[in-house]
């Protein structure tokens, strides 16, 4: 199999010597996605150079519009499930490439397994070749439908390995196992974060996740699609908080796994009510079937994030949703949201 060589120049435009001493060149896989684009932005803001590697399968070039003029930023369209190397210095690799929304990974099952396995190994090899820090964006989905609540990092999870969600859950569990094995056998500087449901600007309006769906439906005056009776819970984290945690993990030597999420837990029905209140919408509610293996509850224990990274979220749901609603309201959103099947 051919190896793609990524040869892009990034340059630090700033002459401040302290910034030069502290700056790193960071490869962000999945950098054109929702979280990845916010991470690229945060890294550029702290003075790093960023090489964003993305195949645009679920990400969008327009997420990067604000950075294309920045000489410290480069974008390359590459599928990281195929072998690739990056020329020049690499100080850190943040591996975020993967479909993440349930409708996306149901549509792309083999690609999801490929990027969790081969893609993760390619990104790990890149980090090892450069002696770079490697951070894996894992997920609360490794806990499956959890039997321990709230979820601590030492809980091993309850995942159906052959159900429709397994392409994502098991890909991430394999990715964690691979990263841990590279840390043991290759002395790779690995950090694993388990991200809980995160929302905010730059979610795709049609991505089918609950926050983007409810916000778009409420703004359009369409019924909010609650799957099941809406008693299942999630704990929603605003994107700025989450990205602050990723940046802290990149800067630390913490191996993890570390949960990153907002521990305030809500039912899906409560989320629908909050979105209706914040948007002032009079949309009705439309109950649809609960997807197979939909986890009944989710709440992170974030004690380790606090101890290891000094991290805790600061944006509450009311404020985060207000910012998210304002962002969606300013954009075209005439889309049908994916169903629950
Ligand atoms: P997203 O779909 O917006 O972003 C994923 C990005 O990865 C996209 O830009 C996509 O084009 C890219 N990508 C996918 N396969 C690729 C491949 N083979 N090669 C190169 N690029 C590829 O999703 P997101 O919400 O930004 O999630 C980012 C990461 O965080 C994912 O790894 C996801 O599993 C993890 N995560 C996210 C959440 C969340 O709530 N947003 C929760 C848990 C974990
Ligand atoms: N959900 C819903 N309506 C939607 C989309 C999702 O009721 O339009 C539910 C879904 O069944 C799940 C929760 O909201 O219980 C969170 O779904 P999401 O896809 O955002 O994230 P995940 O299932 O990966 O936690």
Automatic annotation (TrEMBL):
Required cofactor(s): NAD(+)
Any one Gene Ontology molecular-function term assigned to this protein's record: GDP-mannose 4,6-dehydratase activity
Region (Disordered): 283-303
Compositional bias (Basic and acidic residues): 294-303
Record-annotated NAD-dependent epimerase/dehydratase domain positions: 26-261
Keywords from the UniProt entry: Decarboxylase, Lyase, NAD
EC number, as in UniProt: 4.2.1.47
EC category name: lyase
SUPFAM superfamilies the UniProt entry points to: NAD(P)-binding Rossmann-fold domains
Keyword NAD: yes
Presence of the UniProt keyword Lyase in the record: yes
Name used for this protein in its record: GDP-mannose 4,6-dehydratase
Source organism: Actinomycetospora endophytica
Organism lineage: Bacteria, Bacillati, Actinomycetota, Actinomycetes, Pseudonocardiales
